[in-house]
Specification:
The protein has helices at 14-20, 24-33, 75-89, 104-112, 124-128; strands at residues 2-5, 35-41, 44-53, 58-66, 94-100, 116-121, 134-135, 138-139, 143-149. With 150 residues, it is an alpha+beta fold. The strands form 2 sheets. Strands 1-2-3-4-5-9-6 form a 7-stranded mixed β-sheet, sandwiched between helices. It binds coenzyme A. Coenzyme A binds at residues 19-20, 64-66, 71-77, 99, 103-106, 108-109, 112.
């Protein structure tokens, strides 16, 4: 597996990007502002993440996704650690990530990669998404914010 920056001329892996965020509009915004990294294996894109610059030498990890047939093989963890290293190499001092209150697996993944919960954006998903989101039998309402120093 090779992880590389997607050039602005290349087509983003939409199917994967929309796995992480059902709103095409939100994803388009992230791609406009940030840099998209892809993981390739046998000429297939099997993973993706986007790094979006924020204020105060901080970068946000958004839209991390792994192709469904490759879930549970450790690729998500490799991508998160790659994002952390890339942010460090670029001189950022802090990396942030946000996920839904219902995203139990993602909350586990980020904490296993060193992130700590720093805040809650109450009703973020209720306000920003037209369709209701349910995961693990839980309604997704709030965004849990996590971060770590680099
Ligand atoms: N409880 C405890 N740990 C859990 C868990 C749970 N419910 N679900 C996942 N984990 C752990 C795994 O055990 C693993 O840790 P380990 O290596 O110590 O065992 C870690 O989280 C991640 O596993 P990994 O195989 O690296 O993840 P993955 O390749 O399946 O990718 C996602 C994870 C989130 C990227 C993938 O599920 C995905 O693409 N989901 C859809 C898109 C998405 O939701 N993106 C995130 C938006 S916030």
């Amino acid at each position: 597996m090779n992880i590389r920056l997607l050039t602005k001329k290349e087509t983003p892996p939409w199917e994967l990007l929309l796995l992480a965020d059902p709103s095409r509009k939100m994803v388009e915004g992230y791609l406009e502002e940030g840099e998209c990294y892809i993981a390739e294996s046998n000429l297939q894109v099997i993973g993706v993440y986007v790094l979006v610059p924020k204020e105060h030498e901080t970068v946000e990890l958004v839209n991390i996704a792994v192709a469904e047939k490759h879930h549970g093989k450790g690729i998500g963890k490799i991508l998160v650690f790659h994002a952390i290293q890339t942010a460090k190499d670029r001189g950022y001092k802090r990396i942030e990530v946000g996920t839904g209150n219902s995203s139990i697996g993602q909350l586990a993944l980020y904490q296993k990669c060193g992130f700590r919960i720093t805040g809650i954006a109450k009703d973020f998903f209720v306000k920003n998404y037209q369709e209701e989101i349910f995961e693990n039998g839980i309604k997704c309402r709030d965004m849990i914010r996590l971060s770590q120093g680099l």
